[in-house]
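Input/output pair, single chain:
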Amino acid sequence: MNPEMLIACALLVPLAGAVLILLAGGRPDLRESVSIITSGALFVSVVYLIPHVVAGGRPSLHVVELLPGISIGFEIEPAGLLFAAIASLLWVASSVYSIGYMRGNNESHQTRFYAFFALALASTIGVAFAANLLTLFIFYEFLTLTTYPLVTHKGSAEAMRAGRLYLGLLLSTSIGFFLVAIIWTWRIAGTLDFTAGGILPGRIAGGWIAVLLFLYIYGIGKAALMPIHRWLPAAMIAPTPVSALLHAVAVVKAGVFSIVKIIVYVFGTELLADGVHSGWLVGMAGVTIIAASITALYSDNLKRLLAYSTISQLSYVIIAAAILAPLSVLGAVLHIATHAFGKITLFFAAGSIYTATKKTEISQMDGIGRRMPWTMAAFAIGSLSMIGVPPTAGFISKWYILQGALERGSWFSVSVIVVSTLLNAAYLLPIVYAAFFRTGTDHDHAIKEAPLPILLALGFTALGTIAIFLVPESLLEYAGLLQASL
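Output:
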């Protein structure tokens, strides 16, 4: 199969899966089998693109040219391929996990859930493979619209309020800022295509660079940079597989991935290299990292804590991209992948705890590790990865980010990374300690592990978090390809 057909398959397979899931709605076993098969087929389609990119190719698929310099099309470059591979692989794990979670909690509207999950992954692949800003914007908006029914899945008043906040913030920022920035870019550059070295150098200067950068950064609300972040904690009302989708597989990763692509392929690192026009972004990302970490430190609700942890970790990607050192930009892309494995493990564990015990507060989890050792062992692995401790994947990306900050002499960034690492340890390790070394209540003796599909998915992502560190050769080899492309 040629690369153009593989790109088309990667985009169309999730759409076809959504249709088949709806058709199989009355037969749960068939519906869930379709979800798993579809996710597997998407992953295979993405994997078959890897040799073409590793060989130096940039497979592309042109759809239509709307106006001169404005088209809808797709092109595969190393960063986008890595994002698509991680998202499609973790969709397989999420599909298995969802079987145990949705059935174990007797969730309603399960067919709708699986169908919109598939549509969200189709949108994610569109973001990852977008060849230009227009295509990126279209699929970015599709991702917002297809995840809205997942956020409001429960249908409660609280869920509907969260959905309105989710939709309102993300659409208002994208239309009010992101779209304006795209139109401005086209007016001055005459093209929207992602180009090595950027399309803006020589076409914009002075303070206008900072203004345009501001429009892009705050137009991409999915990156959850403060103060455009409140939608993320609010969306935790959704079922845990949706939380995993928001935090690890698709939504927030689409946000920070888009920011990295725009900095590298629209502005170009040389245009921003002096830091005059991007220094504010380093400062704002640093503030977000520390403020979100402190909020997590004082949160008793487990999913809320993990939400603010995500807000903090996303800004690692932003600050790394804004530093503009080759190693830090590489670290930003790698952190999208390593954070995905660690954070989805933490959310899977939170859902496992809820399914088995209906507990949601950290203060309720004393001794739970003795009754749910597999779940809490996985939680411990995910926690170490968030902190950036060997032997977990988070260490690798944080190492590159830190090295890039040192290379640039960005001592503010170095300080933020060190302080936030200590804060990460301060809000995650006490949960692990309480789970294994404190005594629970008498009625906790009836607690047992969550259903097998949950444990299988949880074990896969936890082991993946360790495997990335222990067997890093392929990732580091690919990192060299990434570095050359960035």
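The longest helix spans residues 157-189. DSSP finds 21 helices and two strands in the chain.
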